[in-house]
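hey so i finally got around to running the thing on that chain from the lab meeting. sorry it took forever, my laptop kept dying and i had to restart like 3 times. anyway pasting the input first so we r on the same page abt which one it is
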Amino acid sequence: MSPKPLEPLAKKLMKGVIALELLGVLGAYGLFHTMDTSRDFRNTMNRRFPSILEVYYKSNEWAGIYGIRERDQEAWSAKQD
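ok and heres what got predicted. didnt touch it at all, straight out
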């Protein structure tokens, strides 16, 4: 049996995989952008998914942007008082 009947299936699967990867990248960018612009969203992430917020802080520190974590902690503790 020749492999030609499998070629269309392989192409469809490859297009599906590429589409899923693109959606994943866009979703990650959207999450990062929202965390970057909203302290309230970062507070929500801190309560629900602290490990994701930690990745956000670490990536900013790795990029040379320091102090976001400290400013957030100050704002959140002032809000609780």
